[in-house]
Amino acid sequence: MKLPPLTIGPYTAPIPLLQGGMSIRVSTSSLSAPVAECGGIGIIGGSALPVDELKADILKAKSMTKGIIAVNIMFAMKNFYNLVKGSIDAGVDMIVTGAGFSRDIFKIGKESNTPIVSIVSSPAFARLAEKLGAAAIIVEAKEAGGHLGTDISLRDLFPEIRKVVKKVPLIAAGGITNGYEMAELMDKYGADGVQIATRFVLTKECAVSDEFKQALLNAKKEDVVLTSSPVGMPGRAINTPFVQKLAKGEVDKTKECLYKCLKKCDHHYCISERLMKAHDGNYEDGLFFSGENVYKMKDILSVQEVFDQFVSQAESVYKES
Ligand SMILES: Cc1cc2nc3c(=O)[nH]c(=O)nc-3n(C[C@H](O)[C@H](O)[C@H](O)COP(=O)(O)O)c2cc1C
Question: Could you give the domains of the chain?
Answer without folding.
Answer: 6-207+297-317 (3.20.20.70), 210-294 (no CATH)
